[in-house]
Amino acid sequence: MVDYVIVGAGFAGSVLAERLASYGKTVVLVDARNHIGGNAYDHYDDAGILVHRYGPHIFHTNSEEIFRYLSRFTKWRPYQHRVRAVVDGQTVPIPINLDTINSLYGLSLDSNGMTEFLAKRAEKPLAITTSEDVIVSKVGRELYEKFFRNYTRKQWGLDPSELDASVTARVPTRTNRDDRYFSDAFQSMPLHGFTRMFENMLDHPRIKIVLNTSFREVAGHIAYKELIFTGPIDAFFNYRFGKLPYRSIEFEHQTCDQEVFQETPVVNYPNDYLYTRVTEFKHLTGQKHPKTSIVYEYPTAEGDPYYPIPRAENANLYRQYKELAACTPNVHFVGRLGTYKYYNMDQVVGQALTTFRHLTAQTKAQVA
Ligand code: FAD
Ligand code: UDP
What we know:
The chain contains 13 helices and 17 strands. The chain has helices at residues 11-22, 64-70, 98-105, 111-121, 131-156, 165-168, 194-202, 215-218, 233-236, 281-285, 312-326, 335-338, 345-367; strands at residues 2-7, 27-30, 42-44, 50-52, 59-61, 76-78, 83-87, 90-94, 186-190, 207-210, 224-229, 246-256, 266-268, 277-280, 292-300, 307-308, 331-333. The strands form four sheets. It has a seven-stranded mixed β-sheet with strand order 8-7-13-14-15-12-16. Strands 10-2-1-11-17 form a five-stranded parallel β-sheet, covered by helices on one side. Helix 1 packs parallel to helix 13 and helix 4 (111-121) packs across helix 5. The mean pLDDT is 97. The protein binds flavin-adenine dinucleotide and uridine-5'-diphosphate. Residues 7-13, 30-33, 38-40, 54-58, 214-215, 230-231, 249, 306, 335-337, 343-346, 348 line the site of flavin-adenine dinucleotide.
């Protein structure tokens, strides 16, 4: 009998597989896809360019523990992510910063000037509850409409007023010229890509990887002591309380004959087109190549579940599944889909490391 079956070879499942195997446990890691890495999977496309199959993945964290842990499996390429948005025919920095305002309005404000500029426009909602409140309370309605309202409607199929504040709160506003997308202490890309990092992580004699196989196919065939499930929690329970809504994306990958497609790694299109953003991978990876590969992201309602949708009614539905999970013995739910949380990679790693500590504390308690 194997100690653990882990469903899903993304960050949640792979970190737990590595930790448990290193702790002496035997692990069978199952994924329905034909590769490890989950949504962080990258590969060389037909032109020989390293691309992220499921959209741009940039590693950033404030946790030294998480960064150190992953550093066991990869070297890093220092990388600061930058994004521009096309608004009113101009390509300007997002997060909104001093240069965004000066370019858009033909001004030459300094930081204090920008603070005053925003203070005149900011609205004061009674409470900051929704994704609309967050932005209008910082930059006012006009900038909200230029940068956030339509992008959010496209991305989520919902108006920002229908989404939790946490969604647009991911994007800061700055009154200086800092044009980095993230301000975390650690920002870098795995030197040889995410998939190589996962390969190193999972290279352990006590981990057996089974790809192209859904949990359903193996459920009755492998005897195990504990199950870790990192797929959608509602699917695990056969949608007993109804379906949890997820947002999906169609990724349209292209290779272009020119060396450079756009000046910045990502360009957002809040108000034009059906896609939200275009990513040029060579900017992320630093690869040199005479051609370049890009991806367009078209958000959709149907398709693989990529984004849990943060809003109160979904949190209530999730709570029912969470309660059911709590009284389902020997099954543990982890990850973005398993716990229905709009988590970044580092948060999933952190959650998996915490789960490992919890599981091994249980084992110690049982032994004692
Ligand atoms: P996943 O990576 O989704 O892995 C779950 C795995 O489980 C999948 O491989 C799936 O095939 C498998 N599975 C599910 N159900 C079953 C089943 N029944 N049987 C067998 N296998 C199953 N985070 C960042 O930190 N920075 C970024 O820049 C960033 N960009 C992103 C861009 C996009 C477009 C998306 C969608 C996400 C982005 N993320 C980013 C988030 C990041 O992808 C996630 O935090 C992380 O990959 C989640 O890991 P996970 O293991 O929880 O889930
Ligand atoms: N957002 C927006 N305009 C932008 C960038 C982001 O309205 O130019 C909003 C949108 O709702 C998006 C959210 O902020 O879903 C979070 O953005 P982020 O770039 O973190 O999204 P992710 O990379 O997770 O898709």
